[in-house]
């Protein structure tokens, strides 16, 4: 009954969303506030309804009702409770429901703000976010019902059906297939929700942008309302990407974190346009320029979000070769095509209204450098998009399937990333409106000389690798510029306000959260860059089969094999093979590591869990590759030394801090935001 | 004057991006082939970067942990999505492939850890070159087991 209840609620919510869209549309066209208000209330209702439906699914997962296809596919008896709950987003049908649930929560949140000054936006925001919600609900209702039950047809085939087919009998498997062991990892449990939070939250700024286009209120109001939405969306998306990398590093056992897999790129592409968007809206707010461009960026971001969900869910591209395409593929294509065409049509219609209020004059002005930053992000997007669709294109044109692997992305993107870093160093020092080589040079020369000195020092002490030195120079430049900015601002304040330096620094940040939050984010990006340069350029590895007491050495580290054991964890359905190795630096004992192989009986699959010793200088990452009790050969290990990689993970923590600083509601508004009245500020700060 | 320098700058970036994409594509291109196609064009593909997919035959998997050398055979599977779909989906196609002794088979040699997902009826996607001896020397080995899971797990990559 619970399954039927859940599906019934889904269906009701779908119809309610359709009502919400029609009422909002009619209300907007007939200028009927009552109808729009009715639509708004309908939208509020979708969230508790979908929560009920989701609860029904979670209850089924917990109860282990394997007659329900989804439960059968993603859980098994031996899984712990928290994994049974998080299996909710472990498969396609459930993760679509998860998407809808988040979408309804966010739309309801957005609809809750006070609309007095923005009444004309409301119906269109409801139409756009309601339309997106309706699409995802339709996928669940018509194609991928998470509540479908298993039935055996008269011809013997078993399948999931929403309604019992004629002459069929229900099937009650005694146990489920269980979640893929690779996904039974804390990183994998929070990674998809983070990514989805980011994806879904970007729908709200898009909805406001479309509302602005439809109503013709094309000033920067929609940007101001959605600024925090965009920031939070961006934060979640970024964290989702980093967590995915961390998961790969911990679980996939190949010593890396990012493989330019199409599924990864699918999540990376909306991040690129979103990052460009976050930068360029500042130009519109400050200078009234780039309005058309901002619209282009948010439309692209929305389309890429849907495209990303589609790619990660349908597996159409990750497996250019021969993967069964799910039924929802065509539906996604139609939806992306229609929304993209409509958005672009609207944009063209309003193109004239979105003309810039000022002209860009100087190539080195702050706004020109921001534009350049945007172009670089878009260039990286084009590279990624090209890499993803190249197999399809080449097959269409030549009939020969040709793919490009990680070297393509690395080679084509590296100069673009380097240029971005250079900009990150230069742009904060350039002036709005007009900058010349002289003014910029005067501000830049001290940090530049500092960065050169650091690079020279590295040249003599750490590395002679040219690419690494260029990279470290850029990192040093950005860091010095950001630190210099903090120092300069705090000093100026210290003199003017008679405060001590730290007081001045804290207040400076508190009064200009967006700017200094931005610099903290830049710093965090540089920490990540250090980690990426380290592992990409300096990773070393070795492997070997050792008898007890024998050792493997790499980069001054010695790995001594001590012991191995194998045992069954019957409750968890796992067989563990765990080796004990001691790590030495020269003669000095450092630590004992325990790399292991977990064999999951339900999935008949191995998982290779590394033993890792992490420091800021490097990670020593040991994999147990092979051991059999009968063989006298010993155990086979693979040993990696991954220099600096921890800066990547640490950087993400600083990044979190930076975004929180930038997005935190400000108590006393800066002069620049005087146009936003207090009431509106407070409601939007509830975002 | 004001506009033209921006235009020039834009053109420069465009040219740079086009150059980066074109040159990198040429360098990193991997030709995706089925086992049948590989045998049909044996001479033409020697030394080229290839990506071949096939169904893993469980009995042929041999692993020498001393040298970390992995040897196994894959059977031909069609490369075309529609063809696969028409034959009843990938799981079915893989099953047919491993049970059909008349299919073309390719010997794969790979040095590195034995991937967890390597098993009978898995789909192997190998990247590497075809040797003069007709053996495929893989530098990268991806495995997918579609029968089991629907999630898009990023391919488990093992790099040697």
Describe the structure.
The complex is a heterodimer of chains A (687) and B (160). Chain A has helices at residues 2-29, 33-63, 69-74, 81-86, 92-112, 122-143, 186-201, 203-215, 221-252, 262-287, 291-314, 328-349, 366-398, 406-426, 437-461, 466-497, 501-511, 513-538, 646-663, 678-684, and strands at residues 149-152, 158-161, 169-170, 401-404, 540-546, 551-554, 557-569, 574-585, 588-593, 596-600, 605-609, 611-614, 618-626, 635-643. Chain A is α+β, with helices and mostly antiparallel strands. In chain A, strands 6, 7, 8, 9, 10 and 11 form a 6-stranded antiparallel beta sheet that branches. Chain A has a 4-stranded antiparallel beta sheet with strand order 5-14-13-12. In chain A, helix 9 packs antiparallel against helix 19. The relative contact order of chain A is 0.08. The model of chain A is unreliable at 315-325 and 668-687 (pLDDT under 50). Chain B has one domain (30-159): Nucleic acid-binding proteins (OB fold (Dihydrolipoamide Acetyltransferase, E2P)), CATH 2.40.50.140. Chain B has helices spanning 2-28, 35-40, 42-45, 81-86, 90-99, and strands at residues 29-34, 50-56, 62-64, 69-76, 105-111, 123-130, 136-144, 158-159. At the A-B interface, helix 9, helix 11, helix 13, strand 4 and helix 14 of A face helix 1, strand 1, helix 4, helix 5 and strand 6 of B. Strand 4 of chain A pairs antiparallel with strand 1 of chain B, so a sheet runs across the interface.
